[in-house]
Structures are given as structure tokens and as C-alpha cells.
Design goal:
mainly alpha; 2 domains; 7 helices; globular; disordered N terminus; Tellurite resistance protein TerB
């Protein structure tokens, strides 16, 4: 296996884990709304999830582990995707918020601050900010 194949494999595995965690959040109410399904379809393309992997993940999202990103900005980007899938549902159930906090800790946010981080993320997504604004606001929320 060449070095580039190894990098490609790790990248794909990380994307599958990220997509899987988003599917878990979407499935907390045990069904996909049309908006959630549309978001998942677009996200799968963006994350280079093949149609076969897509179906496999939808059937068993627990198969892939959450792979926490190394960089803080990447964690924020993942949180943005996760918060958007919760927001798409138009009603935030307790299960979804709880799972969002758990996955937030799983991707590397501090357990002591996760409630504050998730609250801020959901407020920003509710305002329909773009990714760049979301990143800026999340990075400067303690300043």
C-alpha cells in the first residue's frame, strides 16, 4: 500500500465516522424528515460517501466509530454539521440535544463546557449563519 493510499483510506474512514455520527443524531427520533434526508444526501456527496456506504451507514450507523479531528477548527466544522441536522428537524427533542452533547464530547470538546458549546452552536444554526461565521463565532465565544 502506497503512502497516498494510506492517507486516502484514513480520510475516507474519518468521513464515514463523521457521517455516521450525523446519521445517529438524525435517527434519535427514529425517522428521517424529508429535510434531514436531503441534508444527508448532500452531505454524503460532500464527504465522498459512496452509495453503498451510504446505505450501509443508514442501516447501521453504529458500525463506524466517531473519529475526533485533531484540529479545533475541524471540530467546529463537525459541530456545525451536527447542529444543522438537529436544526433541520425543526424541533429539538431532548434525545437529540443529549446525543449532540455526547458526540460533541466524542469529537473532542471539553465535557465541562459542552452544554454551553452546544447551546451556542444551536443558536447560531437557528440564525442560519454560514460555516465561516459559525467558526468565527465559536472561536470567539470566550473572548
Amino acid at each position: 500500500m502506497s503512502f497516498s493510499d494510506l492517507f486516502d483510506s484514513e480520510f475516507k474512514q474519518r468521513n464515514r465516522g463523521h457521517f455516521s455520527s450525523i446519521v445517529r443524531v438524525a435517527l434519535t427520533d427514529e425517522k428521517f424528515s424529508p429535510e434531514e434526508k436531503a441534508f444527508l444526501d448532500k452531505l454524503a456527496v460532500r464527504l465522498e460517501i459512496s452509495p453503498a456506504e451510504y446505505e450501509e451507514i443508514l442501516e447501521n450507523p453504529l458500525k463506524y466509530p466517531i473519529n475526533p479531528p485533531y484540529l479545533y477548527e475541524q471540530r467546529i466544522e463537525r459541530l456545525y454539521d451536527l447542529a444543522r441536522i438537529v436544526h433541520v428537524d425543526h424541533h429539538l427533542g431532548d434525545k437529540q440535544e443529549l446525543l449532540l452533547r455526547k458526540i460533541g464530547v466524542g469529537i473532542g470538546f471539553n465535557v465541562d463546557n459542552i452544554q454551553y458549546i452546544v447551546d451556542k452552536a444551536l443558536k447560531l444554526v437557528d440564525k442560519e449563519v454560514d460555516l465561516d461565521t459559525f467558526i468565527f463565532e465559536m472561536q470567539s465565544m470566550n473572548k
